[in-house]
Specification:
With 321 residues, the chain is an alpha/beta fold. 29% of the residues lie in helices and 18% in strands. The structure holds threonylcarbamoyladenylate (TXA) and magnesium ion. The site of threonylcarbamoyladenylate (TXA) has 28 residues, from strand 6 and strand 7.
Length: 321
Amino acid sequence: MPISSANIRPADDAGIAEAAACLAAGGLVAFPTETVYGLGADACSGDAVARIFDAKDRPQFNPLIVHLASTEASARQGALGEKAIALAAAFWPGPLTIVVAQRPDTTITPLVSAGGDTLALRVPGHPVAQALLQQAGCPVAAPSANRSGRISPTTAAHVAESLGDRVDIILDGGACPGGLESTIIDVSGDTPVLLRSGLIGREDLAAVVGDVGDPADPGEIQAPGMLPSHYAPNAAVRLNATEPHSGEALLGFGPGFSDDGAMMRNLSPKGDLREAAANLFSVLHDLDRLSVVGIAVAPIPETGLGVPINDRLRRAAAPRD
Ligand code: TXA
Ligand code: MG
């Protein structure tokens, strides 16, 4: 697929200023965060937010994360209770999304929460995202900047490939350092619930707010990013593989696997899970470009960052509609 690059701008002062003005005027801006690239629009404008759903071909029932420059700005939209404030103090700015009750006087358009009474709030730490949010002066609704159900983008080129000229501006701030979407914790009820695993682990959260539970009914759509078939590359994904079948690429992890830059790729030759997380979506994008029939994935340890990595891989491998 050709990469449309006419709308890519370097994330320098001029690019950020142009992007902030575009957001304030109701436009769509893709921007880097420490997790993945987001597809942003003014969260207070129904028209602007509707353009996000359009660009992504996203089902309307899927609510969006609201990005803000600070905890203070978040507290003007969401009812931050004791637990949310403690989490914000510990992890913001950073790769954590906190679901709280909406304030009755919130200025966020109801389209963002798909008509629900909660808001998912995040203060990102990436310097480009911070500068953009401060200059735009509005809360920014942003899902990951990919077509619905596809792999999240970790570079400006991934965004251009997936969304092309459906975005007004793609701010190029290089590769996202984290590479996995934010951890999502819901503190709108009595017990905190982990809706999506990510760079911040369950134990890190529990150290701040005590017990962190799982969604009561896994069948219920609480965070549609949690749908079984999500993060899907074009190729079929086969997990816990030791060697590739004919025509398959092999995605390895650790010193026992090679990396030829083509059919044999290694998420981290030295077996470092942080490096593997940062590389995951990028390598899946690369393999998709090669049009391989399948991707055989070596076992990844189910510890630390292996938990969110395996979560994304299981969804990539789930049966498709
Ligand atoms: O790292 C990230 O979180 C990236 C960057 C751009 O911030 N964003 C991202 O957004 O991954 P998205 O839309 O791809 O995934 C957001 C998830 C979805 O599964 C959505 O259902 C859930 O957050 N979500 C949004 N608002 C929610 C709410 N009020 N309650 C529960 N889940 C919510
Ligand atoms: Mg997404």
